[in-house]
Amino acid sequence: MLSLIRSGNLAAAERFWAGMNKISGKTPPLVQAAIIEGYAFLKRFDRALAAWKVFTVPRETPTVAVHQAYINALLRQGRPDDALAELGRLEQNLCERSNTSSDSAVLSAFNTVLEWLLGRSRFEEARAILGRMKKTGPKPDAASFNVFMKHHSRSKDLSAISGIMQEMRSSGIDADIYTASILLLALHSAREDAPQLAITLLRQSGITADTTTCTTLLEHLVRSEDDNAFDAALAFVEHMETRNLQLPSSDQWYMLTTVLCGIERRVWRSSPLAARYRHVVIGKMEKHQRSPFRPTSHTLIVIQACCENPTPEAMQRAMVYYRMHKREEAKRGNTANWRVWSKLMEQLIRRGEWKLADELADNVDVKQFSPGMRQLLNRAKSRDNSDYVHMNPGVKKSRT
């Protein structure tokens, strides 16, 4: 349901909704939440509100998930006061039913409101809510404090960050990987030992600094809104290299792939800065593995990151990575992997990048053709992306 609404195919979503009601007589709570969330995503608050009214008829108490979806819709609509009022009603309803506010979904709703308020510098209101949470519940978790750390990190207020971490300790809450990523970014420009401090924080919280942990930390960093996060990410990778923390070369390469994906996924304000980071990362990848774009799985990951970037330049870079992959395979007498070709062709068709699609069509090996590949090739030649246009009004539709 959520996918149908987000794609913009509202008619199909409404038919699905009506059919579900005929079968069961009632829309399941998770579907209710998906409907409200989908309309909010499309900025159709009128429909989200109408759905909410349907789901809150007399004798029908909406679940926490439905409440949270409606609160998110109110925030997206720029109605924080209504969202806070709805949050209060949710808390009151739960307390009346169970005398507790510890439900994880309720906590998630509170954290969403905290993040929204802090993102708009409404610090005092957020602090008041956090204080109420500490007194009456739901008890704050690491995510609750992380949004405050993120807020202070934007202004590089190290004293305030230290205060939040002390508040976490006094509340008996351990830092998580996201906490460490925020600390690393905040301290990077001020202290050379910032990577080690982040690792120490993880260990104090009982988290082993293994490949999965390090990759997750880097993923948080490269999804930050701060361009300096990439300096911090590279400093962290270099720290892992020089400190010889028993990470094999292949694991270092996985971490670098995470950083490269972050570079390609991001819409950069400065193209030269992106190019510099890209050059550094690919150079390091070549150091750790002779053929960085030969493994199919890694090439797919990087191309997928390019496809998540809405700019036309991103698809051109995806083609560059495809050519690199194809060149490496040719050295071994192989053709480009069919999964890489299919993934890229589907995205080029989806976005109407017909010149690049033509180049890719000319580079296909007919020996490895599957029915799915032939269908993609025919769609590229006929300039047919009609199935995708309603999903993204910005795609180029052409049959010329």
TrEMBL record:
GO terms for cellular component: mitochondrion. GO terms for molecular function: mRNA binding. InterPro entries: PPR_rpt, TPR-like_helical_dom_sf. PPR repeats lie at residues 106-140. Residues 381-400 are annotated as: Disordered. GO terms for biological process: mitochondrial gene expression. This is Pentacotripeptide-repeat region of PRORP domain-containing protein. It comes from Phanerochaete carnosa (strain HHB-10118-sp) (White-rot fungus).
